[in-house]
Design brief:
The chain has 431 residues and is α/β, with parallel strands linked by helices. Strands 5-6-7-4-10-11-12 form a 7-stranded mixed β-sheet, with helices on both faces. It has a 3-stranded antiparallel β-sheet with strand order 1-2-3, with no helix packed on it. The chain has a two-stranded antiparallel ribbon with strand order 8-9. The radius of gyration is 29 Å and the shape is flat. Bound molecules: guanosine-5'-diphosphate (GDP). Guanosine-5'-diphosphate binds next to helix 8. The site of guanosine-5'-diphosphate (GDP) has 15 residues, from helix 8.
């Protein structure tokens, strides 16, 4: 009777009731959520049993349904079925894992956005436009003899350039996000003696506990520690200091014997600054900025930068307000008095969240998987745009097809079994 009633269901239904299991003295409360139609997570008919949170009870129910002919799902099988049924694309399937794996609220938000179609939507629009363009071009090829043009060369160029730019933009975002999948790197940068180490210690608080690694070698290598900023964790890096061995008129490093050490330290600092997600460029407010510092302020930074005025408990040597007007975000601080440290923390957090997470908005595993496909897609579309300008329709069509294939790999329109295996085997059973 129950089976017939269930088979007759036409709409999603909740049955509130009890379940009787061998070995239990009482019927147990159990609600059944039934999706008889394709509106379920996997687009297959589906039943969920909701039980009190008791491990022996759950184990007994699994045993009973398996005895009745069911089997336990493989890891990720549920989400893989949803993908194969077209309910989710691959970026959304990865976002499911991103939601499960998220340890920070910001990462959870990225995963939820991706699950809601944050990456699928723009990719679908892009692929639809390219498929249409390809159809128009191919129609033109079929009617080449009659000299009928379905789409002008200008329009082909314009649409291809637009598509190449859109893919390049996505690729840029993925790269950022992938790097920050490890801890986001906040690098202190500036002349020796401006107060970087003091700021490092002041920001991380308990120095002895917080220093996590000290690179081997000279004392002028770099230090790293974990910096917690509310809901996010970053790696803060203290470099030895940049520039020549003198700052203004003051000798800051030892004699000639230190030259090799200084050069090595300088190279290390430059390398660290180059890998920064956020750069904290430190300027000593108690002395005049030198030529190198002025140059740094004028030049566009390689990574998002916050200028930090240090030693603001001392009397200022320059009108820094004027010097910094309009250049960068800057914060006045003192490691001695604690002035401005909270503002600096808030500013770093804002930069990290805005630049590394929200701007990219992609789950790390998607970024790692798709970087290469997006690079290939971008190259094909750029070549197609260049060829279109010269008028080689057949070659243009071939490049668009190659671009579509590469984009298809991102969303999973084109996939291989081993790609699915790699993605879904990382899920736990039941997801
Ligand atoms: P680094 O070489 O850039 O790492 O600079 P340090 O952190 O070693 O600081 C260089 C000198 O500046 C030291 O003598 C510090 O005591 C001093 N100093 C650092 N921060 C402050 C500050 O906020 N106020 C004052 N008055 N002195 C500071």
């Amino acid at each position: 009777d129950t089976a017939a009633a269930l088979a007759a269901l036409r709409r999603a239904t909740v049955l509130v009731g009890t379940i009787r299991l061998a070995g239990f003295c009482q019927p147990l409360p159990c609600d059944a959520y039934i999706w008889p139609t394709a509106r379920s997570y996997t687009r297959e008919s589906l039943a969920e049993l909701h039980l009190p949170g008791s491990p022996p009870l759950a184990a007994a129910v699994v045993e009973a349904v398996c005895a009745a002919g069911a089997r336990v799902a493989r890891p990720g099988e549920f989400t893989m079925r949803a993908f194969l049924a077209g309910r989710l694309d691959l970026t959304q399937a990865e976002a499911v894992l991103g939601v499960i794996d998220a340890t920070e609220r910001s990462a959870l938000n990225v995963a939820l956005t991706q699950l809601a179609g944050g990456l699928s939507g723009p990719l679908r629009a892009l692929r639809d436009d390219l498929v249409e363009l390809l159809a128009l071009l191919e129609a033109g090829l079929d009617f080449a003899e009659e000299d009928i043009e379905f789409v002008s060369r200008d329009e082909v160029c314009r649409r291809l350039e637009h598509a190449a730019r859109a893919v390049a933009e996505l690729q840029r975002g993925l790269r950022q996000r992938w790097r920050s999948d490890a801890l986001v790197r906040v690098v202190l940068h500036g002349r020796p003696n401006v107060g970087k180490s003091s700021l490092f210690n002041a920001l991380i608080g308990d120095v002895d506990v917080a220093i996590t690694s000290e690179e081997a070698g000279t004392t002028r290598d770099y230090l790293t520690a974990t910096l917690r900023l509310d809901d996010i964790a970053c790696q803060i890096v203290d470099t030895a200091g940049r520039g020549e061995t003198t700052v203004g008129e003051t000798e800051v490093a030892g004699g000639a014997g230190d030259d090799a050490i200084n050069r090595a330290a300088d190279a290390k600092s430059a390398a660290q600054a180059g890998t920064a997600d956020v750069e904290l460029f430190c300027l000593d407010a108690s002395r005049h900025p030198d030529a190198w510092e002025r140059e740094q302020l004028r030049a566009a930074p390689a990574s998002p930068r916050v200028v930090v005025l240090t030693k603001c408990d001392l009397s200022p040597a320059s009108d820094y307000t004027e010097l910094l007007a309009g250049t960068d975000t800057w914060v006045a601080t003192s490691s001695t008095s604690g002035l401005g440290l909270d503002r600096l923390r808030a500013e770093v957090r804002r930069r990290v969240v805005v630049d590394a997470t929200e701007a990219a908005g992609v789950v790390g595993s998607t970024a790692a998987r798709c970087g290469e496909s997006l690079r290939l897609a971008c190259e094909s579309l750029e070549r197609a745009a260049a060829l279109a300008a010269e008028g080689g329709e057949e070659l243009v069509a071939a490049e668009i097809r190659a671009g579509l294939d590469a984009l298809g790999e991102v969303v999973g329109a084109v996939y291989t079994d081993d790609v699915l295996e790699r993605i879904f085997s990382r899920f736990c059973i039941g997801k």
